[in-house]
Amino acid sequence: MLKGEFPVIGISTEIDIPERIAVKKKYVDAVVQAGGIPFLIPFTDDMQVLWSVVSLVDALLLTGGGDISPSLYGEIPLSQCSGICEKRDEFDYALLRFACKQQIPVLGICRGMQLINTYFGGTLYQDLPEQFPSDVLHKSQDTSVVSQHSIHCRVDSELYRMLGKKEVMISSIHHQAVRKLADGFKATAFADDGVVEAIESVAVNNVWGVQFHPELQAVEGDEAMKGIFGYFIRRAKDMLL
C-alpha cells in the first residue's frame, strides 16, 4: 500500500496527445508544495484496475483539459466546442464515481469542476461568448496569456475557509461554465458577471470544484491559492487517521 505519513493524491491524466498519458506539471508541484504525494492515475478503460487504483489514494484531483461532451447533459455540441474526448469523459466519470464510493475528498479544477457538475446532473454553457456574453474575460484569445479577474466568495462556504478572504484575483482559462447547478450542490463563488466560479457539495462530504486554476498561482507563492491545496491536503490527511 502507498499509505504513509503523507496523504497520497490521485491526479487524473490527459490523453490529448496520441500514445501519451500526461498531466501538467504545476498540478503536481502544487500538491507537493502542500504536503501531498502526487500519484498520476494512468488512463485505462479497465474498471477493475481503476477501482484498485482509487483504493490506493487518499484524495482525487480532477484536472483541466478539453470540453466535456454535451451529450452527457443531453445537448448537441455547438461548433465552438473543442477537444472533446469521450474516452476521457468516461475515465474521469469512473474516477469520480469510485472516489465517492470510497468517500475520499475530491477537488475538481476547471474541466474537473464542470465534470463534477455534469456527473451529478447539472449542465454547462457550451460557450460563454456565444451563450453568456459579458465584459469579463474568462479566456484570453492569446493562448500564451492567462486571463485574470476577480471573484467574490460566499462567507458561508468551505472555499472561504480555504482562501481566508471574500475577494481574490484568479487565473482563468475557460470558455465553458456551470449553467444549471447540480442538485445537492451550492455555488460558492462568482465572477462579476455572475458566472459560477466554485461549487461544493451539500449532499456528499468533501467534494469541491473551482472553475479557475489555483495551481498556477499557488506554485508562485500566492497564499490564498496555496490555501486551497493546503485545505484539500489536510482533508486528505484525515483519511489516514
From TrEMBL:
UniProt keyword Hydrolase present: yes
Gene3D superfamilies: 3.40.50.880
Cross-referenced PANTHER family: GLUTAMINE AMIDOTRANSFERASE PB2B2.05-RELATED
Protein name in UniProt: Gamma-glutamyl-gamma-aminobutyrate hydrolase family protein
Pfam families, sorted: Peptidase_C26 (PF07722)
Membrane-spanning parts: none
Organism, scientific name: Bacteroides xylanisolvens
Keywords attached to this entry: Hydrolase
CC terms in the record's Gene Ontology section: cytosol
Domain of life where this protein originates: Bacteria
